[in-house]
Amino acid sequence: MKLVFATHNKNKFIEVKAMLPHHIELLSLDDIGCDEDIEETADSIEGNAILKANYVRNKYNLDCFADDTGLEVKSLNNEPGVYSARYAGVSHDSNANIQKLLKNLEDKEDRSARFKTAIALSMNHSNIMFLGICEGEISKEILGDSGFGYDPIFQPKDFDKTFAQMTLQQKSEIGHRGKAMRQLIDYLSK
Fold this sequence. Notes:
Elements: E1 2-5, H1 10-17, E2 25-27, H2 45-60, E3 64-73, E4 79-81, H3 94-104, E5 112-123, E6 126-138, E7 154-156, H4 168-174, H5 176-189
Parallel strand pairs: 1-2, 1-3
Antiparallel strand pairs: 3-4, 3-5, 5-6, 6-7
């Protein structure tokens, strides 16, 4: 089975590919010659995932899944949410996003947060949605050097380290993307 994962993010692609069974040949947007950035104009994480999956399905006629992930911080009215990748601006600068989030939380006692991943599968001319949520909190400092995005400041519930201090396997087992991916894999295995 050949399936496109609608991403240009090499770290995310590696993380997802490691979870998939070997009989699924995973292709990235780069692999299919899709150089454009697919606009994320929906007002929800789920909506952005659907936009990306349908774009690839319609333009390239290939079965595709796309994800969108957002970090929702309770005391910031669930910011950055759908704007997580561009919280500090359109440059998608992870360090700037982290610094802005830590600054916005300086006077907040409640640091509870959750990561939410929505995966939209566009296959056989229909869409199916898979959701993964990981509850946790935002640390007061940057900890760890693996992972990407907000991983150095997100500490999952019942753990004493951030995602960036965990191995890829540990993160996949408990994380939002891993939860959504397992649902997708279960569906594809049927």
